[in-house]
Amino acid sequence: MYKVVTKRYLNEARTICLFEIEAPLVARHAQAGQFVIFRLDEQGERVPVSVAGYDREKGTVTVMVQAAGRTTKMLHMVEEGDYISDFAGPLGKATEMEGLKKVCVVGGGVGCAIAYPIAKEMHERGIDVTFIAGFRSADIVILKEELKAVSNKLVMCTDDSSYGEKGFTTVFLKNEIEANIAEGKPQFDRVIAIGPDIMMKFLADVTRPYGISTIISLDPIMVDGTGMCGCCRVIVDGETKFACVDGPDFDAHKVDFDSLLKRAAFYKDEQDEAAQHICNITGGKRNG
Amino acid sequence: MANMKVNMSMTKNEMPEQDPVVRAGNFEEVALGYTVEAAVNEAQRCLDCKNAPCRTGCPVSVKIPRFIEKVRENDFEAAYDIITSTNSLPAVCGRVCPQEKQCESKCVRGIKGEPVAIGRLERFVADTHMAKEDKPEPVAPESNGHKIAVIGSGPAGLTCAGDLRKLGYDVTIFEAFHKSGGVLVYGIPQFRLPKEIVAAEIENLKKMGVKIVNNAIIGKSMTVDELFSDGFEAVFIGSGAGLPQFLHVPGENLLGVYSANEFLTRVNLMKAYRDDYDTPIKHPKVVAVVGGGNVAMDAARVAKRLGAEYVYITYRRGMDELPARKEEVEHAEAEGIEFMLLNNPAAIHGDEEGRVTGIELIKQELGEPDAKGRRSPVAVKGSNWILDCDAVIIAIGTSPNPLIRSTTPNLETTKKGGIQADDNGVTSREGVFAGGDAVTGAATVILAMGAGKTGAKSIDAYIKSKK
Questions:
Q1: Tens-place pLDDT, residues A44-97
Q2: Does this model's pTM top 0.90?
Q3: Which residue of A has its CA nearest to B177?
Q4: Rounded to an integer, what distance in angstroms lies between the CA atom of residue B136 and that of residue B138?
Q5: Contact between B177 and A224 using a beta-carbon 8 Å cutoff
Q6: What is the ipTM of this complex?
Q7: Which residue, among B221, B248, B403, would best test binding to A if mutated, counting the most A CBs under 10 Å from its CB?
């Protein structure tokens, strides 16, 4: 059993929540870009979630989770001091940052939670970080102060202009790239994009003509997360890869987004159905 | 055994089974086990041969004639003690060992008629013991102060851990999954090996003092080197063969194409077939399973139980070449699984939404026998045809997971990705031993258990040599 040490909502709309979990075995090696698999209880499913932070001395790992399906909605009902049944990892490869000098990190929605530790580590290593954070509207914006602290330049935007600039991340990414050219500044040697699959697809289209190396972090459906089931298959440069062990980071210009988008929606019907059957009387607890 | 009563019946006592039509709609165990009468009667078929050829067919050298003698005498607890002196998982072995290729293949009664039903008797003894209410608790031996790490809680790891604990070692098993048992819980379905039985065997090991750390992915959560720096004096790697192989044909990433590992893990480990569990599973109507081994049979029978109207086993060789246990093939046939033999997949077809609509097969003919004596399939040109289906399950084998070998320096591996180990489980790294599917690639439960036993012996010798 794994104790929830801290629980804190990260935005007004309470769509994204931070959980600090006591998991010394995960905290020991966790790195930015990796993920963990958690399970709420005996009947629970195994759900992957990115590492948002870690404290090796305290033996805790932080995750930031958006309530989307049944399991994540039930996780939001877990309180500080409660225990969850399983928390395994760290899994997947850490984000590569060797030799980088100037990077643009783009986060969309909850993707900012995954991008944050990557930007933080890059910032600590002295890499010049431009962070573009996009949200649908002001009520779901997260990590305002944190993102500012880990970036040399921060652009925050919302689709409806209720917070920061108005517009999509694609527009602001293009602006930044063009500004580098216009002002004769060094170009980004990498763009790291994390968010909804469709956003990452369009961001890849933005950087392609400029030939800027672009990495995306994928979050496909998984079961074990250790390379055992092959459920998280993704086609990269014509080859089948397992996101759990070969990724989750891949070259955005080589990922087959068409297959990715279809595979991600495979269990949508089952998930929608399951999410409607959470017992509110017991606060999400199954045998409560 | 001068006055021994021998039952000269040429055939085994039948083991009652659930009706095929009924069982194809549930996940209850198929085979129901012997009654006391049937067990004693079957035990009387044993000739108690002096040289006990059956024992040579058993990878863990169960004292077969001795335990059968006790069954004959109605002393089932004594029979249990004899089996468990060399086999720590009798209820499992009695169910899933390929006895017809092992102990029973050596039985003298099998020369003329059927061999003694050793597997069924082993199962009977184990189940009788488990059902007993006032049985003594397993004893935890005194610790000798030497810490040993075992990676993986499948048949190899559990056996190695049990044997080392009996010798006094302080044993910790590291298991990647939230539940212990390895392939016994994620791979083999409930109707063939009830998970309560695996849990009971593991509980026994815990009572003996074996520690199990779940959610510990060696190679990720910690490395083999760190196990040594944490004070473990030797490491046994029994991490199995968890990496699924795919066909590498067009359409393999369509929706509805599963590795057998994924399909079986969702159902067996995550219990997706039960309404009260959260893991989702599709309920396809027409399923094509690719492959002819035990895993293919398991996947096909699970698909049937999830409500598929038609389930086909497609295999590139013929009926005689199926690698699955005969009993599994018979059970599958009885449950209505259809065999599309001499057919090899060329592609998987899908609709605009990316969902599977059919599998394209090429008919095969059997050519000359290969080095192993198996006749190789040869494609019949232009014989491609499409079998309509809405799910394809690929069960063509698994290979060892690279997580450990890629994070352990100086650990030699084989061309196929297995860990290099000699007959005693000794690897290229001092203090590191390995056995089971992690070394050989996918094989059987009992061979893995045999390797676990050998590993335990080698570790004991290694620790003693260091003193």
A1: 999 999 999 999 999 999 999 999 888 999 999 999 999 999 999 999 999 999
A2: yes
A3: A224
A4: 6
A5: yes
A6: 0.91
A7: B221
